[in-house]
Design a protein that fits this description.
50% of the residues lie in helices and 19% in strands. It has helices at 32-37, 65-75, 82-91, 94-102, 106-110, 117-134, 146-158, 163-176, 183-193; strands at 4-12, 16-21, 24-29, 43-52, 57-62.
């Protein structure tokens, strides 16, 4: 199975593209986010997910490992196929999906094309524990405070605090604090609210 392909982007559209590696063009399906990150003719690295069916061999390409990881999590849920997972990742960044799952936000998930209320609930039930534990892996998809956020969440988790509750508190502190806040100040202020 392929983990990634390094090559030159030959074609890119909002839904599919072609990457050339050693004279072979690999067609892949992609998300809108990946499309925006790729540039025609540029050397790129795509993280690949392969689906082999009786009638087709399909490649799904992602500009970041976090996006592929969320794609794999979504398709592990019964009733969620690759098309719905791509639609989800074209609508929201992986961190936004993870936050919706962690907070049980059915309304946000059901706005995704192909995902109704029952599917949204199933995603939350099946992935809440998985996504909550992996929340800190989405550094590349957040704002400028996201590395600080991840470090604070890891520290609070190591201290034994509930990851979901910690995320809510840390996010509130970051929203109200100044941009030059240190990790120590962020943790201390978060501890006051936990």
């Amino acid at each position: 199975m392929m983990a990634y392909i390094n090559g030159r982007i030959i074609t890119r559209t909002p839904t599919f593209g072609v990457i050339e590696n050693h004279g072979i063009g690999y067609a892949f399906q992609n998300t809108l986010h990946t499309y925006e990150l790729l540039k025609d003719g540029a050397e790129s690295k795509l993280f690949i997910h392969t689906v082999i069916r009786e009638d087709a061999h399909l490649l799904y390409g992602f500009a970041a490992e976090e996006e592929r990881s969320m794609f794999r999590s979504l398709i592990s849920v019964s009733g969620i196929g690759p098309s719905s997972a791509l639609a989800a990742l074209s609508s929201y960044k992986p961190k936004e999906i993870a936050d919706a799952i962690a907070h049980g936000d059915v309304n946000k998930l059901k706005k995704i094309k192909g995902i109704g209320v029952k599917s949204a609930e199933r995603i939350i039930v099946d992935l809440r524990d998985k996504v909550g534990a992996a929340q800190a892996n989405f550094d590349n998809f957040g704002g400028p405070n996201n590395t600080l956020r991840s470090e604070a969440l890891r520290a609070l988790q190591n201290l034994g605090f509930d990851p979901r509750k910690s995320q809510i508190v840390v996010d509130k502190v970051l929203e109200t604090g100044d941009e030059s806040m240190s990790i120590e100040v962020l943790i201390k202020q978060s501890l006051k609210s936990l």
